[in-house]
Task: structure prediction
Amino acid sequence: MKRAVESIKNQIKANTAESREIRKQIHASKGAERSHFWGCKRGLGDDTRHLLLAYACLRGRPYLTIEAKCASDNEPRPSAVLAFLVASLPEGGPERAEWTKDRVKVWLARPAASETKKEAA
Result:
């Protein structure tokens, strides 16, 4: 598990460095080329978000402590989180079989609004 966490941390660091380079290219370009670089940066940002969620999931952090608020049209994709989780775990290891899309969905689940109101009362 420790190797999986380190693997994801290294991927996050690599994405951060790549994002910095793309930002330099955005500032140095114009027109369609600039638009292309913005698209690349947004895609990289999406991957990094899912990597960060996979990292938190592996470390046992509750999802709501990572993203307390999230717009309904910006929910994370369980399949993307799962893909990063599985890619970081050792091939054929027992942990790899434990992670399923349903398990990630449960981790990403937010309490219903009625449940939240009951807890507040």
In short: The CA atoms of residues 2 and 58 lie 9 Å apart. The mean pLDDT is 90. The two ends are 39 Å apart (CA to CA). The first helix runs from residue 2 to 28.
